[in-house]
Amino acid sequence: MKKFVNLLLGCILISGVCTKEAINSYKNCDETPITAEACFSLSEEKDTKSIPLSLKAKAAYIMDGDSGELIYSQNAQERLPIASMCKIMTLILSFEGIEEGKFTLSDEIQVSERAASMGGSQVFLEANAKYPAKELIKSIVVCSANDSCVAMAEKISGSEEAFTQAMNEKAKKLGAMNTLFANCTGLPKEPQYSCAHDVALMLKELLTHKEYFEFGKVWMDKFQHPQGRYTEISNTNKLVRFYDGCDGGKTGFTSQAGFCLAATAKRDNLRIISVVIGEKTSNERFADVRTMFDYAFANYTQKIVVDSTQPLPEKIKVSGGKLDKVSVRANKNLYAFSKRGDDPYITTEVRLFNDVKAPLKKGEKIGEIVLYKNKVRIDCADLLTCEKVEKATVLDRFHDVAEEWTIR
């Protein structure tokens, strides 16, 4: 018979006080199946009109970079041109190409004549020359190089057209339903558009690729060409140097789109993503995003609920092992995002994939721990065993029986 055991996971309320409401259910996953639902949700229903921000952008969006929870929204679903911010998606597919084994950062990529002929922002790639993928990606991140974008697109998909189709498919998978790409650079071409909400979604996805941060924080560098020539590059996102905690983002500008910026900053455990579209000047976009960051860091907090470095307070029962219980820990920290002064209702739920049976390896995944805020699922982590549990032998069984008789 399947059993339901209540666990107390150690004062998990944001206030730090354990109450009856802090008791978390502990279930087998076949009793309550884990669905493929996202561990976070974005809501446009939240009223942000009372937030005292005087922004000059046509559209703006602020959200928690981990949970995706909305902080501020201004015309965030309006379809607008976003210029080079579309390169966020180009970068997502580039990092996915690496993870899928299509190429490595050290692989040499040959540049076509078409890629080398791109106008606008560029690093002046030499046609038919070969460049390391790492350098091409860096130039896209740092100086928004159009020529490098096309070179990467052709490497990954064979043509920019096929790559653009993949960009649109990925946008739909992310839930960016007000986005349509016409190329991989953001150079003017109809029809193409996005919105502040969708750009924030895309930047959030890009930040899951940890290699990105190797490039996102670069301020100035030299881009080396095969024949010894080099191009000096500097980050178009000035906040990387001039705003404490800013470690990434993407600028954009065309006469049609105006000045745009999607940027992220992190202080302590709190990561914020801010997006502005349609500013009149470059300085205005940086000033508005700085204002957005200041507001978010002053008014919101990210507190740890489950610490991945510590075992959960209660052990999990093991059948058929030399040990009858095993300690478990989460494979990552779980945080609860909230406005300062608020007291959200935070609970966790432990879900085991099946009855836990020996033998078990140390670090073996046996289930998940799910985090809820106000009864809404916001994050989840794998449950890993903290020690090895060997299968019990016949002799172990004999000792157990003997001890039981002795006790009687």
What do you see in this structure?
The chain is α+β, with helices and mostly antiparallel strands and 408 residues long. Helices cover 26% and strands 27% of the residues. It has helices spanning 87-99, 113-116, 133-143, 146-157, 160-174, 196-206, 212-216, 239-242, 282-299, 394-407; strands at residues 5-8, 23-28, 59-64, 70-74, 108-110, 130-132, 220-224, 230-234, 246-254, 258-267, 270-279, 300-306, 316-317, 325-326, 328-330, 334-339, 346-352, 365-373, 376-385. The strands form 6 sheets. The chain has a 6-stranded mixed beta sheet with strand order 1-2-17-18-19-15, with no helix packed on it. Strands 4-3-11-10-9 form a 5-stranded antiparallel beta sheet, with helices on both faces. Strands 5-6 form a two-stranded antiparallel ribbon. The chain is globular, with a radius of gyration of 25 Å.
For the largest sheet, list the strands in their spatial order.
Answer: 1-2-17-18-19-15
Radius of gyration: 25 Å
User: Share of helix among residues?
Assistant: 25-40%
H/I helix tally: 10
Strand count, sense and barrel status of the largest sheet are:
6 strands, mixed
Helix/strand class: alpha+beta
What is the residue-averaged pLDDT? 88
Report the count of strand segments. 19
Through-space gap between termini: 26 Å
Order of helices and strands: EEEEHEHEHHHHHEEHEEEHEEEEEEEEH
What general form does the structure show? globular
Strand content: 25-35%
Unreliable spans: 1-45
